[in-house]
Design brief:
Blueprint: H1 3-12, H2 18-26, H3 28-37, H4 44-52, H5 54-64, H6 73-107, H7 124-131, H8 134-147, H9 153-177, E1 196-201, E2 204-208, H10 210-218, H11 225-238, E3 249-252, E4 257-260, H12 261-264, H13 272-277
Parallel strand pairs: 1-4
Antiparallel strand pairs: 1-2, 3-4
Helix pairs in contact: 1-2, 1-3, 2-5, 6-8, 9-10, 10-11
Amino acid sequence: MNTDLDLFIKALCSADDAGALAAVRARAPAIRQAMADHDLALSAQQQACLEQHPEWSGIVYAALLNDLDDLDGEAEGTIEQAIRQARDDEHAEIGEAFRALIGQLEESHYDWLARFRGLPAPDKFDRELLEETGAVEMGGPSARNLLQYGITPAMIYEATRGVYLLFQRVERSLARAGSEGPRERWLHDRTPGMGIALIVQHGAAAQIPDRIMFAEIAGTSHISAEAAEPLYKWMRDVLPIQPFLVERYGYDGGARAFAPLQRLGIAIPGDLVAQWSHRARVDTRFLMN
């Protein structure tokens, strides 16, 4: 990767970092030239940074164009092409990761399509549009089989991303609350067997009810109301087989608990393919002693 493009991507993923923004302004002509000469390849996680902080992304792009009085057609086309390429690269990565995930599910003899069989097929127009996306193309025959129920690998990733963002909000809420405890009343609930536990620090876990997890998936863009429940149940089925389905977290099926990979001492490269291919057992007992 070109150094100037690295600098630009780092700024996109560094919300409210004035130093990163100043670096983009200082190197703006070189970054634009690099965009013209090289593809701007973002991982799924980096693309998610843009979606999580759209206002900041706009500020960074404005800094990139700060020294131009009038953006000429060629420069504008270069920026638009770079954005399209980043989206295409993200979908290709999701498709490749999905293919690896399905391989593991088939090895375990899990009927991974069963949860979706009651869903209606998409109409011909929608199906043709979805078939052309990189996530379906790279996902191979399994992605096309899934598409008959109106679900794509990208939708599965968006659902897992929604759960990741929920976990991040819970951790921030607990960190802000300190000794007073969280404001969200449902985090105080310790009903046995209800929902899942999120280990937030050594010896302490927050209980997240199923209804909160489900609501997070149901509120995800591009996932229909009728698809949300089977998709949630599918994720619950898959997690014991692939415990790294949710970005930066590992799932212990025995304890029904998630914990950040850093606390588990598990290192996985930052790309989605490595994450959904990783094979390791997650044991959270040492974190709760």
